[in-house]
Amino acid sequence: MAGKSDRDRPVRVDFAFRRELAEKIEGNLASFCYQCGACVGDCPAMTYSDTFNPREIMLKVLYGLGDELVSEGSVIWQCTNCYNCSERCPQQVKPVEVIISLKNMLADRGMYPDAVKRIITTFEETGRTVPYTSALERQREAFGLPPLEPVPMDEIRKLFEPDEGEEGE
Amino acid sequence: MKKFAFFPGCLIPARHPAMEFAIRKTLPKLGIEIVDLHGTSCCPDPIYFKSKDKLNWLSVAARNLCIAEAQGLDVFTNCSGCTATLSETYHLLENPVLRDRVNRRLARIGMEYRGTSRVRHIATLVRDEAGYEKIRETVTRPLEGLKVAIHYGCHLLKPSNIMQVDNPDNPEVLERMVEALGATPVRHRNWYLCCGKACQTEEIPVNMMRDLLGTVSDEHADILGMICPTCFGQFDFGQMKISKLFDEDFSTPPVYYFQLLAFAQGVPYEKLGFDRQRYRPECLRRWQEETAEV
C-alpha cells in the first residue's frame, strides 16, 4: 500500500488508466466489484505472499491507481492463475481476468518478467511454447510418434496485425 | 468407433512424448478414434501469451478451433492449459461482437469461426464417451493394492462454468478413473492447492509446493496420479528442487493418468518412458515382476 505521506493526499482517480483498462477484453469487470473479499480466502498467492491481495488489486483498479499496478515489478505477476477468485466472486468480476487485462497493459509498455518474455518469444517465433529439438525428434521416433509439423507462422502473424480503423490495438 | 479431433498442444508432444504415446495406445481400446489435425499451433497458452495480448490470444485459439471445425469434429485436448484456452475461447466467442471482431482477423487467412466444435478435456471425453465401466473392461492387469494420491490441478476444474468438467469443490472424475484401474485413490489434504507454476516469484511457489508435497507425502501413496503436464513438471523436477531446498525427503513418483491406464491395459513398464522421470514409479516395475512370477 501507499506510504503514509501518500496517504495524506486525496486519491486522484487516473481516468485515462481506467479507460485503457476498460478497452481490454473483460478489463472493465472490476466495475462490478463491491469489495466483499470472497476472492481472498481461497487465493493461494495471498496465502503465501505478504503483498498480493486480489481484493486490494480490484480496489486499486476502482480507485484508478494505475501507477501502483502498471509499473515495473508489479505485484500482479504473483497471481498463480488458479481461478479460485473467479469461482468465488458473487459479482462475476473474474479478478484473474482483470489481472490478465492489467498484464496486457504492462505488455503494451514492454514491461514483463524475463521468464514470461522468453516463452512469448518462443511462441512468436515458432508457434509453440516449447522449443522443438532434434533430441526430442529422436525421442518421438523411439515411441513411434511422427515428427511435429512446422506451424504456418505466416498465418499466425497475419492474425496479429492491428484491426483496421481501430488504432492502437 | 467415435471420432474426435486431437489437439495435443506443446507440452506433451514436445516435452513428454511418453504421455502422447500412452494416449494413442489407450484411447482406441476405449472405442475412441483419434483424428490428427494439421496446421495447428500452440493453443496459445493461457498464462504467458494471454498476458501479452488477449485479442491475439483469442484469434490464434479461434484459428485452431477452425481447423477442427473443418473436420466436422469435436476436439479434445490432453493438457489442462490447452483445454482452458480453447474452452474459454469457445465461451467468449458466443458473444457476437467479439466473434465478429475475431472473424474479421480470421478472414485475412480465409477462415471463419462458427462455434461448431465442442472442446473436451481427455478426462471428460473418456468419462462421457467411454465410461468408467468401459475403462474397467480394458484393464488386463488390475492394479489391486496400488495407492494413488490424486492431484487435479487448477485448470481442469476452473472456471467451472466454462470448463464444465466436475464440481470444483468436490470433484470425483479422477478418483473414479483410478478406481476403474483396480487401484485405490486417496485425496491428499492440500489437493485444492495450485502447483504455482504460473506464478512469477520464487517465494510463493516454493512454499506452496512444500505444503503440497508434504500432504502428498503424508498419504504414503505409491504414486501421485496426474492429469496436467504443467503440474507434472512441478511434481517431478520440482519435487527434487523442493526436497533439496527444505531438506525434506519427498519422493512420491508422479504418473500421468494415461500412462497408468496403458500399464493397466498391459503395456510393459519399459515401454512407457518412465526412465526419463526424476522420480520413477519403481513400484510399478516391481509389481510387474511380481505378477509375472505368479
Please, could you describe this protein's structure?
The complex is a heterodimer of chains A (169) and B (294). With 169 residues, chain A is an all-alpha fold. Chain A folds into 2 domains: 10-108, Fumarate Reductase Iron-sulfur Protein, Chain B, domain 2; 114-160, no CATH class. Chain A has helices at residues 4-7, 15-23, 38-41, 44-48, 54-63, 66-69, 84-88, 95-108, 114-126, 134-142, 153-160. In chain A, helix 5 (54-63) packs across helix 8. The mean pLDDT of chain A is 92. Chain B has 294 residues and is an alpha/beta fold. Chain B folds into 2 domains: 2-122, Up-down Bundle (Glutathione S-transferase Yfyf (Class Pi), Chain A, domain 2); 140-293, Rossmann fold (3-Layer(aba) Sandwich), CATH 3.40.50. In chain B, 48% of the residues lie in helices and 11% in strands. Chain B has a 4-stranded parallel β-sheet, sandwiched between helices. A 4-stranded parallel β-sheet of chain B has the order 6-5-7-8, with helices on both faces. The longest helix of chain B is centred in the first third of the chain and has 17 residues, at 54-70. The radius of gyration of chain B is 19 Å and the shape is globular. The mean pLDDT of chain B is 96.
Name its key features.
heterodimer, A: 169 residues, mainly alpha, Fumarate Reductase Iron-sulfur Protein, Chain B, domain 2, 2 domains, 11 helices, elongated, B: 294 residues, alpha/beta, Glutathione S-transferase Yfyf (Class Pi), Chain A, domain 2, Rossmann fold, four-stranded parallel beta sheet, 15 helices, 8 strands, 48% helix
